[in-house]
Amino acid sequence: MTELSIAKTHHPAALWFPGLLLTAAIAGAARWLAQQPAIATLGLGSLTLAIMLGIVVGNSVYTPLASRCDSGVVLAKQKLLRLGIILFGFRITLQQIADVGFSGILIDALTLSSTFFVTCLLGIRLLKLDRDTVWLIGAGSSICGAAAVLATEPVVKAASSKVAVAIATVVLFGTLAIFIYPLLWPLAHHLFPGLSAAQFGVFTGSTIHEVAQVVAAGHSISPEAENSAVIAKMLRVMMLAPFLLCLSAVLRGKRNGSKARQPVTFPWFALLFIAVALFNSLQLLPATVVATLNELAGLLLAMAMAALGLTTRFGALREAGVKPLLLGALVFVWLIAGGGTLNLLVQHFMG
Length: 351
Description:
Elements: H1 3-9, H2 12-34, H3 37-40, H4 46-58, H5 66-88, H6 94-126, H7 131-156, H8 160-191, H9 197-207, H10 211-221, H11 223-237, H12 240-254, H13 268-281, H14 287-310, H15 314-320, H16 322-350
């Protein structure tokens, strides 16, 4: 019996097990390291360490294991991340969502639209990159990283090579944000003494690329920053559907009025996160059950971070070339400077 036929007789759980076991091992190692005094003084949380360890393993010993582990790693990166985010809702209350409120929605909308516009301006006009690559990088930077790139691909009908370049670009700068934003918090608090950790969390959630990266960065700052960052990010993720509808309408106009409609995905897990937070506000579950669910959410998120690290390849960044990486860098600077300015202005006038 061939290896392929053996694989077909296995239950999917058997195919997932090696990858899930590897991500769980990395997550466990990261949580142990985070508790060591020498590491704790550096301010590195378990989620950040899980990504770092995943990157090291992914770019060293993982290659011969990939054929057996990829299924489970992809499951952790996608499904377990979303389940972890949904369960994260048990740390959130209705009051915290209300605190982010309309100002958070406005910040997200302004950041999304301005970032996509700036990406198009810099990529097409300044760097002379092709439109599809620019739009994919713009979508990933504006909304939710690689997930937004993949959701935008069928709308713009981009080549797979351009999708890979866009994903590599947004993953690189989103990963850098995990380390840079915790360093920005003391500086921002010094320059703007009235800035709270929760407000900085909104800035984090409205400007960092991926959900996983937002969770890791917020976790390294403070619990208040982490909670508001995740809320702001979930509100931003829910803007993916209207963004794709607008982009599809623009493209239909450019394609001589073609009425062919492209599928538009909606991130239902973001709505489930809000629903769980609303349920948690009712305080119907015993505190011990909520604590257990929070522990489970932490484990699932750490496994997702490990998977994200395992799938981050330095080779993909080299293949992307200079111009897409330069565009990603310029947009990253805009997200910090321009996004920070938008946050301060909205919070000033609506605070």
